[in-house]
Amino acid sequence: MITLLADGGATEIEGPVVPHGTEVLGWTRKPHGWCRDEMCVPSFRAAAAESAEGVDLAAFAGLLGREVVSDGDEGVIAIGEPAETAPGEAPPFEELEKLRGTKVALVFWASWCGCRYDLPAWEALHRELAGHGFSVLSVSLDRDPGDAREWLDGVTHPAVIDADGRIAELYNVINVPTVVWVDEEGRIARPQDTMTATDTFRSMNGLSSERATAALRRWVVDGEAGTTLRELRAPTGDERRARLHARIAAWLLRSGRTAAAGRHLAEAAALAPHDLAVRRGLMPLQGVDPFGEEYFKVREELEAAGIAIYRPLPDWQEDAR
């Protein structure tokens, strides 16, 4: 038996080749091909993943444009999300779909980030602008849900804890705080930006919360998003693979297999050294202080390489440093 990490869950399967007649990643075999809702992979394409023994899971995922990372020694395989959605469409997940018809600020944060102190300000904006058809939806990147819950006590806005990193993968979030604006029709109004709701750490990030929240209010009240860029910045193949190594590492750490997890963490860092959502986000599971020496070593490494910690710089922040 091996463990399949995909679509937000962990499932035990018999092996990397799935027996015929079995649903694969939510797709069902029909006479003309593999189908999911209205979408189908025609038989002539699916043949590349099929054999007399069954359906090769990794090959089938490749047909769907999904990255695969496996560890045969540890008995685990991780399959990523599709490379992209329709242009301009906000990748769907359950909590966001419930807010269709409402403008949404997706606020990515974590307990290991100073942005946790911004949550009361985001809650205040949520309450202030609710009458204009607006909602904050906060997404914690904490791998241990218990680390996030204490900071969510008393909030009324919708909140989700992205413990397996799936939503961060869907939205290509490499650090927090990151905010994405989604309009009433589920389309991107403003892609991933570093955005703060208070000036608590302005000395470190150089960002003006006053400018940012004023821009948000203009969008909510007047419909002016202030940008012509309406698509998410897409991840590279290396970034996508790094997140899968991180997903396997988190699973291994929870199982107490620290040495094996370390190999995947090293691979993730090599593939995407700038992805602090992975490198810093997994420190608590390793028993490492995410505010301590190891984190500042990573910062120094990135700064020496000319890689900005907070990026991209939003339009409204350009002269705020």
TrEMBL record:
One GO MF term: oxidoreductase activity
Record-linked Pfam families: AhpC-TSA
Location of the Thioredoxin domain: 72-218
InterPro entries assigned: AhpC/TSA, Thioredoxin-like_sf, Thioredoxin_domain, Thioredoxin_ResA/DsbE_sf
Domain of life the protein comes from: Bacteria
The protein's name: Peroxiredoxin
Natural source organism: Planomonospora venezuelensis
